[in-house]
Amino acid sequence: MLDIQNLHAGYGEMPVLRAITIALVEGEIVSVVGSNGAGKSTLLKAISGIIKSTGTIKFNQESLHALPAHTIVQRGIVHVPEGRKIFPDMTVVENLMMGGYLHQKDRQLNLEKVFALFPKLAERRNQLGGTMSGGEQQMLAIGRGLMGNPKLLLLDEPSLGLSPLFTEVVFGAIRTINSTGVTVLLVEQNVYQSLKISHRGYVIETGSIVLTGTGEELLDNKEVKRAFLGM
Ligand SMILES: Nc1ncnc2c1ncn2[C@@H]1O[C@H](COP(=O)(O)OP(=O)(O)OP(=O)(O)O)[C@@H](O)[C@H]1O
Ligand SMILES: [Mg+2]
Fold first, then answer.
1. Model-level pTM greater than 0.70?
2. Of 31, 122, 178, 182, whose CB is crowded by the most CB atoms within 10 A?
């Protein structure tokens, strides 16, 4: 579904991603794990067209490089960025409706799906986004992404800063979303939880992929255990 080859990207003169090659099959959850500053968020930004890159990015055989970011969203690639970035002065429902502006006729049905996935959002539908707790805002950010009818969901650190309880809720929701047919590319600090729910994963180090395997293989890998699991 997503085929990335020899991808290079950076900011101004500074290179960040070097010759990244990654592939996602439809229906998978794939994790990209790596230390702070390794280039995980940069990778997601390159895929969704927020930053320029060179190399190949194909989504269902179509090159994304010729397409502006808003067209990439229309193709079904929805990016839920790091740090939530919800609209603080809009209510929960208004935030969700903004996420569905490209899909007017599906909005009511999608809203009900989001509320079924996160009942907390239904309870707080008229509360201002900015007054929600961190975990609630994260649910809202994911919910807003789902309103965009994603085929491929790019999730950047969805569990960052969340309590163990909210972390469980978020990882459970990612599994549920995937089970409805949405392919997921997940970037996480929580290496254990993310590899546990992933079909496959990649380890990124200073902008290069250094290791790949199934979620289980990576959890069992000596280097992964030492670098990310404190074992
Ligand atoms: N807008 C920017 N302008 C210049 N440099 C940037 C910009 N955004 C990120 N960088 C740099 O690019 C490198 C990779 O950053 P990136 O955000 O992709 O890392 P990350 O793996 O997502 O890290 P983290 O786990 O901390 O979120 C870092 O050295 C960072 O300082
Ligand atoms: Mg990041």
1. yes
2. 31
